[in-house]
Amino acid sequence: MTSTDERHQFSERLQQALRSAEYSPDSPTQLAREFNARFAGQPVTVHAARKWLMGESIPTQEKLRSLAKWLNVTAEWLRFGTASANNSNSSHNSSDAKIIASLRQLDEGNQQLVFEFIRLLVRMDRKK
Q1: What is the pTM of this model?
Q2: DSSP-derived 3-state class of residue 79
Q3: Residues 28 and 64 in one domain
């Protein structure tokens, strides 16, 4: 059982991570929608997302890891506030994370088109 203080601190870190990733920390609807788009398991309800934001509950470990990956922070930091907030496995910033998340939502064919377009832009930029 987690204490009220632990849940509140988790909520503050979640809100901070959402702001850093340029999402609203005030919208449980957006949180649930964006989370569910990235989570392969049982989707969360808007009510559950509201409870996370309000410090009334902490997600399961599986959901916590998914939140951390999406928001580009470590699961340890998100849950306990320890270690670095930045995901040490990732060198991209929150804007990059949003682009990558959008790219992952595309089907494989469209992902290949995006990669080819990026390669073309890089080649053109090198010729300048």
Answers
A1: 0.65
A2: helix
A3: yes
